[in-house]
Design goal:
Structural Genomics Hypothetical 15.5 Kd Protein In mrcA-pckA Intergenic Region, Chain A, 7 helices
Length: about 190
């Protein structure tokens, strides 16, 4: 509408169809990432997804490397079993950060006892409930009502009416929903 006559040609500054390269002075110096960069990017992706720091990640990697199964799969399964992740996947929290905050503030109980560590590793058969306080129930109900149709994974069972859930089985590699190449993480951390 407000474009000039020049915008009817290929040299339109608004469209820039003739310009097929990234902006900046050094656009031609960009190269393909290195192997180290690819491995580091995969590790950072997993750390950000689960919200763990470097020291926590190293500790979990050491535990995974001592397990008899594949180290990369064991690493992802240990991260998947964290309480903040389980609370988020049970739809008792809006996100992992809000699940972490709910756990730290004492809104979540495991097997009837208040757990204040978001890194608590759940086991098969654990029962995750919301504390009996009205504040806790109101908070969790608000999160559930915000996204009531969010699917729950098959290794978890949730009773929305009672605001509780059960870990029926341990997660498998297929239950990890992020697209990640765990072998690159193992190669990086094993150096």
């Amino acid at each position: 509408m407000l474009k000039g006559h020049r915008c009817e040609t290929a040299k339109c500054p608004m469209e820039k169809q003739w310009r097929n390269f990234p902006p900046g002075m050094h656009q031609f110096r960009r190269t393909k990432g290195t192997e180290y960069g690819r491995r580091l990017r995969e590790k950072q992706k997993v750390k950000r997804y689960y919200g763990v720091l470097e020291a926590q990640f190293r500790r979990i990697f050491e535990i995974a490397s001592g397990s008899p199964e594949n180290t990369g799969v064991a690493l992802l399964l240990l991260l998947e079993r964290r309480l903040d992740n389980v609370v988020c996947k049970m739809n008792l929290a809006a996100s992992r950060k809000s699940a972490r905050q709910a756990i730290l503030h004492g809104h979540i109980k495991v097997n009837g006892q208040t757990v204040s560590s978001p890194s608590f590793a759940v086991k098969a058969g654990d029962k995750v409930t919301v504390a009996a306080h009205e504040r806790s129930k109101k908070l969790v109900r608000a999160w559930i009502e915000a996204d009531p149709n969010r699917p729950v994974q098959k290794w978890l069972r949730v009773d929305v009416a009672n605001l509780e859930g059960t870990v029926d089985a341990l997660p498998s590699r297929d239950d990890v929903q992020i697209p990640v190449e765990e072998n690159l993480i193992v190669e990086l951390c094993s150096r």
